[in-house]
Design a protein that fits this description.
binds calcium ion; alpha/beta; binds SN-glycerol-3-phosphate; 33% helix; TIM Barrel; 241 residues
């Protein structure tokens, strides 16, 4: 059965990358969550998508220029009624110990290198003994190869925005057990061949009914979606068992 990963949590209905969006994804019955990590000025691993806090919070400026205690004062649910802080990754991992969800941690280090971020994330994942439920991904493939070297027990999956030739060969060459392509990137036969070669395929961000249907029809390993509720409903229609 195709697994459903909630992109930045249940972000179709809740503020992205907040504890509420993760908890509601779990309540909805998602198989996993996806989240993005960056580092504060004092080296705390925090869960936020953009390098700047401007779009998603009440504040302005780069994540890297905030001390964690100051970043926590910002409201990451500025359109909602209830104030919510930017979560520390540790808070999410602590909550993951209360359930069985998988968690795809995306290293957001394409623009800002965040030296030492992989080490800190690996250390936290090991502290909470969650290695078997975590997948590291990144558009920065050097970063996921580095994380594999640090922690070969934790799965990795490169993110792609454009097609690459024989992705299963590439994945095997960097010891990745999965790939996370943009949903429109790969034709069905390439997805099938990749899976036949033992590499999981988890396309992002799959929000339209027709796109969900496409991936359910070929029994794709997983989809990453903003709307786990819709995905679960459609999966029930298109996949049995
Ligand atoms: O992991 C898939 C997806 O999250 C990658 O793109 O920009 O939403 O982080 P983005
Ligand atoms: Ca992401």
């Amino acid at each position: 059965m195709t697994q459903i990963f909630a992109h930045r949590g249940y972000s179709a209905s809740f503020a992205e990358n907040t504890m509420s969006s993760f908890i509601e994804a779990g309540n909805a019955g998602a198989d996993g969550i996806e989240l993005d990590v960056q580092l504060t000025k004092d080296g705390e691993v925090v869960v936020i998508h953009d390098e700047k806090v401007n779009r998603t919070t009440s504040g302005y400026g780069f994540v890297k220029d905030f001390l964690f205690k100051d970043l926590r004062k910002l409201n990451a649910n500025k359109k909602g009624a209830k104030k919510e802080p930017i979560p520390a990754l540790e808070e999410v991992l602590e909550w993951l110990k209360t359930n069985n969800l998988q968690c795809n941690i995306e290293f957001k280090n394409g623009l800002i290198p965040y030296d030492g971020m992989e080490e800190k994330v690996v250390q936290l994942v090991r502290k909470y003994d969650l290695s078997q439920r975590i997948i590291f991904s990144s558009f920065n493939h050097y970063s996921i190869v580095y994380s594999y070297r640090l922690a070969p027990e934790i799965e990795t999956a490169p993110l792609f925005i454009e097609s690459i030739y024989m992705p299963w060969i590439y994945s095997q060459s960097i010891r990745a057990k999965g790939i996370h392509p943009k949903h429109s990137t790969l034709p069905d036969h390439i997805i099938k061949t990749t899976m036949e070669n033992g590499i999981a395929v988890r396309p992002y961000t799959v929000n339209k009914d027709a796109h969900m249907h496409r991936f359910f029809k070929i029994n794709c390993s997983a989809i990453i979606t903003d709307d786990p509720v819709k995905a679960i409903q459609l999966r029930k229609l298109y996949q049995k068992g």
